[in-house]
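Quick one: structure for this chain?
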Amino acid sequence: MYKATIFVTLRPSILDPKGKASHHALQSLGMTAVKGVRMGKLIEMDIDASSEDEARSIAVDSCEKLLANVVMENYHIDIKKA
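Got it. Here's what it folds into:
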């Protein structure tokens, strides 16, 4: 059994209205050291696979087919033995 942690973020060229709104709100709260915010999502998957390579392949396939919009988003996968 493996645990995949998947980080999905918008590509740098894509506008991020949630990030922009959060940045503005933080600035309004006096957090002027915050110079930018980009929002994303974190996905955790438990994968029953015989090897780390198989688990990674399943996680990549899941991202490519459903979890990430590969036109607009990047993703990074961390795999650990559960």
